[in-house]
Amino acid sequence: MKFRELHPNIRLRIGVGFVQRLLAVMLTPLLVVHLAKLYGAATAGVLTVIVAFAAIGSNFLGGHLADVYGRRPLLVLGELGATATFILLAAANSPWWESGPVTFVLFLLNTCLANIATPAADAMMVDVSTPENRPLVYTINYWSINLAFTFGALAGGFLYGEYFFGLLAGAAVLSAATTFVFWRWVSETAPEGAREAAAGVPAMLRGYLSVAKDMVFVRLLTVAVLTRAIEVQIGYYIAVRLADEFPVQEIVSFGSWAPKVDGVEMLGVLRAVNTALVVGLALFAGRLFGKLSDRTRLYAGIGAFTAGYMVWAVSNSAWPLIVAAVVLTIGELANVPIKQAILADLVPAAARTKYMAAYGLNARIGLVIGSVSVVVGAVLPAAGMAVIYGLWGLGAVLMYRSLLRVREERQAAEAAAAPEKTAV
Fold it and tell me: Which fold does the domain 3-195 belong to in CATH?
């Protein structure tokens, strides 16, 4: 199957998702930096924490509302709200008017509205995909995320100083365009009979309580936390270790040209290698791994991914670190689409957006573990941290082993029930 053969909603969602992530990667760090300039680093940190907690609450609220009102209204609301807040953010940071308090409030509202729509967008991808095409769908989406990250980081970094107002105004224009796309072309995808009749806080709490009681989903969330805990180390313990321990050294030498890098620069090289490989190879993942079973892709992918991070945790030599970056990226490309497909297959359709909202907690928990890892790494030697990464990776493989078994049992039950329905 090719991209143009996918459901129109999926194609639109990936395209709009690229714009959304581009704007988020480009502007969120700049807004934090802007608040730090206005109020100082400490105050900006507190304000950022408020935004982070508001995002979590909005995510859960959006998961419930999408199950009550459907996917499309939440998607349109999120984009319409983003457009309005970007217009006002541009006005509040224009040559004619500047307001720090208004900037923070609008930043908060923008984040909340974006997160309200996120569970609906994630659920829509599952609604109109099939078990057969989900690896392709999530591979393309993964490629799109990394491409947006690359362009967004570059644009934000180079244009912030003199063009902050222009960036915000441009974001408003792009958000207006994506709002029109969702309103004009995206159709409702909530399964028939899946919408909940009950609204309100009690209904929402009952819904999320039932999600928390689903032990299969608890395993899905736990294994996502384990892999996320490894992934975030590049921005936490590994970043700190390289900055402190990595000796200045040459990477390549051509005659008199022999550039040297320190630990911080090496960190940038590793990030660049990872991102470049993902952008360059993700769309070919189907050809690279197409003949492998889901089980093989998942186990080998997590193994390579974990091994690469273990090397990153201990090595102070440039080329072993670069080779490890290549290995872990290949592992990442192999396992990420399969993990997403397993999640989609095991989440009940009747409460899909609630499950997606709850699943989003893995990213937040991973960031907390990343912060704690810096403290633990100050006590443990590098080899000890590598062992911890290895245990997390092993735990993920063992947990996915049980989840694959659950998926196989459900697929067998569905296959057995299908002839009976046909006969009736």
Answer: Growth Hormone; Chain: A; (1.20.1250)
Question: Is the C-alpha dihedral spanning 150, 174, 126, 369 positive or negative?
Answer: positive
Structure tokens at 88: 């006002």
Q: Which two tokens stand for residue 393?
A: 């990776």
CATH among 3.40.640.10, 3.40.50.1000, 1.50.10.10, 1.20.1250.20 for 213-251+258-423: 1.20.1250.20
The domains spanning 3-195 and 213-251+258-423 adopt the same CATH topology: yes
- Rounded to 5 degrees, φ, ψ at 258 are -140, 80
Q: Which residue has the tokens 């730090």?
A: 36
- Residues 178, 19 contacting (CB under 8 angstroms): yes
Dihedral pair phi/psi, residue 81, rounded to 5°: -65, -40
Among the listed residues 239, 212, 235, the one whose alpha carbon sits nearest the alpha carbon of residue 361: 212
Res. 196: pLDDT tops 70: no
Contact 318, 251 (CB under 8 A): yes
Half-sphere exposure of 403 (CA within 13 A, CB side): 31
Q: How far apart are CA 269 and CA 263, in angstroms?
A: 10
Q: CA 49: distance to chain centroid?
A: 19
The model carries a pTM of 0.84
pLDDT number for residue 284: 85
Domain ranges within the chain, ordered by starting residue? 3-195, 213-251+258-423
CA distance 324 to 315: 10
Do the Cβ atoms of 139 and 278 come closer than 8 Å? no
211 Cβ neighbours under 8 A, 6+ residues apart: 217, 351, 354, 355, 358
Using CA atoms, how far apart are residues 348 and 127, in angstroms rounded to an integer?
Answer: 11
Contacts of 76 (CB under 8 A, 6+ apart): 179, 182, 183
Mean pLDDT score, 162-179: 91
Instruction: For residue 97, give the H/E element and its range.
Output: none
- Give residue-wise pLDDT tens across range 355-382: 999 999 998 898 888 888 888 998 899 9
Band of residue 1 on the pLDDT scale cut at 50, 70, 90: low
What integer best gives the mean pLDDT of the chain?
Answer: 88
pLDDT digits (tens, 9 = 90+) for 279-337: 888 888 878 887 889 999 999 999 999 999 999 999 999 999 999 999 999 999 999 99
Q: Over the stretch 108-126, which tens digit does the pLDDT of each residue have?
A: 999 999 999 999 999 999 8
Report the C-alpha gap between 83 and 20 in whole angstroms: 11
